[in-house]
Write a structure and sequence with these properties.
Elements (H helix, E strand, L loop, with lengths): L2 E6 L4 H12 L3 E7 L13 E4 L3 H13 L3 E4 L6 H12 L5 E4 L5 H13 L5 E8 L9 H14 L17 E3 L2 E7 L5 E9 L2 E9 L6 H10 L5 E4 L2 H8 L1
């Protein structure tokens, strides 16, 4: 029997793509498309809800899905470490709950975050520059926030990050001590540079998204990961690991 899927935010760019991916997967059945005006009760009857809404709406969608015993895959930005702390408690209060937060469905962006954590073990001067299309509602991006949080966790026991003049607004927004600079430009889809400075050298890890087709493989991987996932997981790398095992 196919997994019944409800997509919340189905009329957006990513939501439209998720619907197309679900419809192309024989083991999935798209049973509901919800937009910003839909009643969340419209997702009842689904086994899995995919939340691709807006940062201000996402938590409500996730809480409703958990309360109704529906698994939820989240592709919405805005899930900072503080919000994840609250979500962790909610999941713990609902045995059997299944939530998967994916800051970026791109395999390349996920690998960039994983590689950046390794590099951060050896460099203490670190900044992030991210650029997205002019229509992106939030900044910094969820990917940049997650990257900064992951790097900060690595640096926590290694003396932290050097970020001089953090009181100056031009130095970007501080995300756990790491300056993040956001660009919103026509002609850009998505790009992130993680910049590391060392003695006499710099290293930049760059990821460019040229087409939304880059998200397709990650969406498929995340949907399949949800078939057996329990609890809370954050980051597409969990689905990557499950695929490799």
């Amino acid at each position: 029997m196919p997994t019944r899927v409800a997509v919340v935010g189905a009329t957006g760019r990513l939501g439209t793509q998720v619907c197309q991916v679900v419809e192309a997967m024989p083991e999935m059945e798209l049973v509901a498309r919800l937009d910003s005006h839909s009643d969340l009760h419209d997702m009842l009857g689904a086994d899995l809800a995919v939340d691709v809404t807006l940062p201000g709406v996402s938590a409500q969608v996730v809480d409703f899905a958990i309360a109704q015993g529906i698994k939820v895959l989240v592709g919405t930005s805005g899930w900072s470490s503080d919000r994840l702390t609250t979500l962790t408690k909610t999941v713990a209060e609902h045995p059997g709950a299944s939530v998967f937060i994916v800051p970026n469905f791109s395999l390349g962006a996920t690998l960039q975050m994983m590689i950046s954590k390794t590099v951060a073990e050896h460099f203490e001067s670190i900044e992030i520059v991210e650029a997205h299309h002019a229509g992106k509602a939030d900044s910094p991006s969820g990917t940049a926030v997650r990257t900064a949080e992951e790097i900060a966790a690595v640096r926590r026991d290694r003396g932290g990050v050097i970020a001089p003049h953090s009181n100056q607004s031009a130095r970007g927004e501080q995300v756990q001590g790491i300056p993040v600079h956001s660009l919103r430009l026509n002609g850009v889809l998505a790009r992130q540079d993680v910049k590391f400075g060392g003695v006499g050298e710099t290293l930049t890890i760059t990821h460019d998204t040229h087409s939304r087709d880059a998200y397709q493989a990650g969406i498929v991987m995340a949907l399949r990961f949800m078939e057996h996932h329990k609890g809370l997981a954050v980051g597409l790398e969990h689905a990557l690991a499950a695929t490799d095992s």
